[in-house]
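#lab-general

N.A. 3:47 PM
ok so I finally got the sequence cleaned up, no stray characters, all 723 residues accounted for. can someone with queue access submit it? mine expired

B.Y. 3:52 PM
send it over

N.A. 3:53 PM
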Amino acid sequence: MHRTFALVILTLAAVFSIHPASAQDAKGSAIFGFFPNELAAQQDWEAKFRAVPQPDTLRATMRWITEEPHHAGGPGSKKVAEYIVAKFKSWGLNAWIEPFEALLPTPVERRLQLLEPEQYTAALKEPPILQDKDSSDEGQLPTFNAYSPDGDVTAQVVYVNYGVPEDYETLDKLGIDVKGKIVLARYGRSWRGIKPRLAGERGAIGCLIYSDPADDGYAQGDILPEGAYRPWQGVQRGSTMDMPTYPGDPLSPGWASEKGAKKLTFAEARTLVKIPVLPISYGDAMPLLKNLRGPVAPEGWRGGLPLTYHVGPGPATVRLTLKFDWSSRPIYNVIARIDGSAFPDEWVIYGNHHDAWVNGADDPTSGNVALMETARGLATLLKQGWKPRRTIILASWDAEEWGLIGSTEWAEKHQVELREKAVCYINSDSNGKGWLGASGSHSLEQFVNEVARDVQDPKTGKSVAEALKERQLSQAKTDSAKKEIIGRPHPPIGALGSGSDYTVFLDFLTIASLNLGYGGDGGGGVYHSIYDSYDWYTRFDDTTFEYGKALSQTMGTAIMRLTNASILPFNFVDYATTIVRYLDEIEKEHKKVDGAPALDFAGLRTALATFKGSAERYDAAVRQALNKGTADAARLKTVNAILYKTERAFGSDKGLPKREWFKHQVYAPGLDTGYAVKTIPGVREGIDRRNWKEAADMIVVVQGVLNAAAKRVDEATNALGGP
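B.Y. 4:20 PM
back already:
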């Protein structure tokens, strides 16, 4: 869904340590959670799995799926879902389509006209490229922002840079008010739905969002068709649902959107944006920017167009006219299930979405074909006699692009069962060439490191862990930075905000979650455009599909370990250490606020110390148990149930301030950023908003969830027999 931000998270936030054993000689390396006598068989089965995924199969599957546009609610998406389920069944898997419905408005009328001081009518259309047959396919959704309201507004334009809170602070200092104006914002720095929301809160009556060439156009590299970057009339489609409030169908927050289910009225739906909004190309934005006066834009606001950037307001005056068909339409999730032989009521779930804004080779098909190849690999092992101890659920979601709808509706429907049975949710989205990245629950940090140790990097032949560490060392600018990278015994993974299908599992159901993918080597400007096609992907991204193979190998290895580990590989020392860092950051930010009242962090520090002590005792106990080489099956079942439900303790039934759907108290997308994570969000955002009572109240809430988590971890330690 959100490739630009996902790659920032994946390639910068996650660094893996080098282990003595590379992918080639990993046999014999310990795998946390397995007894010594189980290790050889596990590694043999993993090696058999990693031999299955093939680049040619990935390529052929991508070619089939991307042959036609397949947006959610359209015939192409159903056709793709039927193709996926047929493939799953052909491999011998138990698979089905689980349908839902959702509000999916499509455009009826779109017009943007510059009226003064000169006249210009925006093209609002991406021209086909001769070299790419798919760019002229029939059935393409036009360029629009989903969930914009209907509207016909005329006003002067104000340029607001990225349209994030600090940009409005700058406008305030310049004495410029957007009330009654139409704002022009550029894509980037936040979820696109934040831009019209913030503009509307400040009195703007319309919002235009454009892709500046400084960000993903000719300033970054050659544009299509010669290069990978966005051409003059390229446009980024996308949803403007206010997802930091809640994702999923706007009319059914917290429950599944199915035929006959209750629905909110449009007036009750809190995630529908209030002012009309439209995405445009930098070709269509240039006449608007050229006709702005007022102050010259601050240096950081200046993009890549050949003009002087002014803020306005006016004299550029535009008329924006939008009308939509506000229909609910069917969506089609594909689900496959492999029942566990020993613990069928413990579920390991892996998902990627299949819907795209147009043909969507990069987003999401590059990830979805890896999921399908993982399914083929697991099916191959089943035929050879492999038996997963826990149940595996594979999901190809629909309507992710509109607001994580398919995954959210499925999880809301099955929420009671998922809270009881879900061990972990693993997500992927777009996949490219480069380095393995990971973000997620920090109790799985050690687990991810071990998986990275044992999968081969396509480019170097080393482990993907070693390849990534070498990349980090090559980018380090100082000797001290290099020394830090070399000396890290157990580096962190990133934290998850939002932007893909893990959101409902982590933030609403508080299930331990991961997001994995490759990227960072190369770039482009085709995101959510007609140019995200098979031709573009095979010319400019993972041209050999070796990284698609690597993603499948990575996912399969992770799934096989989670499903067959005797003791689930959760490490709460990593979690505690990470939360200490988050709390240090928050206290530091609090001290920077002039005139801020005192906040009592002492109780929170005490609770965190308690959690860390519990984590350390459990770590000693589990290592002692694994070294013994055996354990009672009933005891292990009890321990594992406690372990995977420990993440639930980090949730609060009341949720976060202003957004009760978000239950997790350690991770959440920022209310005013949408993608980027806010850690310990209730406290951090209370301080950001200067709402000191809210911050103080949330300190107490976080203190409570830490104590609850410590209690769960102590229960696991006691169930193991203590250290």
